[in-house]
Amino acid sequence: MKKILLLILFFFVTLFIGNKNPYLIDVPKKYIKFFLKKVNIIENFAVDKDTIQLTEKEKYINVDKNELVIDGNSFSLILKKNINFDERTAGFFIDNSDASNLKFEIFLQNGLLIESNSTKEIYLPKDIFFNKNGGLKTVFTVDNKKFALSTNKKLNCFYAAIYEIQKQKTYMKTKCLPDGENVDFNGIGGAMIEKDNYIYLSIGAPEWNSKPIRKLAQNKDYLYGKIIKINKKDLLSNNKNLLQPEIFTIGHKNPQGLVHEEGNLFSIEHGPQGGDEINLLINKKNYGWPAVSYGTEYSNGESFAKHEKKYQKPLFAFLPSIAPSSINKCPKNLKRYYKDDICLMFLTLRDMSLYVILIDKLKLNIISHEKFLIEKRLRHFGQKNNKLFEKGNTFFISADGDGIFSAKFDYFR
Fold this sequence. Notes:
The radius of gyration is 22 Å and the shape is globular. About 0% of the residues have low confidence. The chain is mainly β. The strands form seven sheets. Strands 1-2-27-26-23 form a five-stranded antiparallel sheet, with no helix packed on it. A four-stranded antiparallel sheet has the order 3-4-5-6, with helices on one face. A four-stranded antiparallel sheet has the order 7-8-9-10. It has a single domain, classed as 6 Propeller (Neuraminidase), CATH 2.120.10.30. Strand 4 and strand 5 form a beta hairpin. Helices cover about 15% and strands about 40% of the residues.
């Protein structure tokens, strides 16, 4: 009762101050809403009620059931829309793909969870920060528990955090970013894979033309610009201390996708202007950002150094930029078709395409990449237990501001 009375007093004081200076009450209002949701007085903290209701209303409305067939060189990609929404995904999970009973959990970057029969706001930390392209960036599963990577701001400290959604517990925080004016959380990374007893998570160096932030990719005192490794036991423990992850690799700009196949770890990541990369990840290796890149500066078009011996070269660099997002294994029918090679597929934002790439199993060099132009900004593959969900060779992809599509490779020639 004491807490509620203090909160009411705090509310009227901030209301009085806000009449003189409305900007000053933004943060107090945020904390009041957070508290009211925590004690179940209101249902939403960060997303307004009208947005929640509209998202729920429109998810099945005017879903185009027509198939889109995109022909490739020797097979085709078939797409069909399943769900509508007007946001970016932070990740999504499919439990069943029966045509009459699609069961799913779609987490949006604005903090909403769309399920088969409802739409609601999930637990979000009170310091979550949606400006500068921030918000809920990634959701992943460990032993049926949902964890999230969020972008946060406390006073003048911009940082990222990992927390468990249901338990409402924070497990990891990054250090404060320098040069707050030029933070761009589009570059925070957030790709995750599970291997053995560990999870691997990418943390980008989130900047817009900021040399102080870029330099953190080479600084081992910071997690930015790294692939980090976390023991699953630590993530599932009740330890009150924040995790101190192991740094697996360094020198990355913005790794958006990770995949484990044939005993190898691969990443796909954004370069600057050009120079998006596919990398073979090797423990303790340095991938060079921002010292080397095949791209150029956004501001003036100047080139970076192309290579130095102490850095790992990419398997492939894209010129110009394609803005890759998620990468995954190929579905079973395509793996059988390319059984002598490593078959991977990845999505792109700027290039609005799905790519299929083949990698030589012995030499680990890229043999080919085939592009399927979809003309939508593609972000995530649907997963189950941190693996590509597929049933009957059908898998699922998300498109920014559009929704979820089922996809299938067929008509092999």
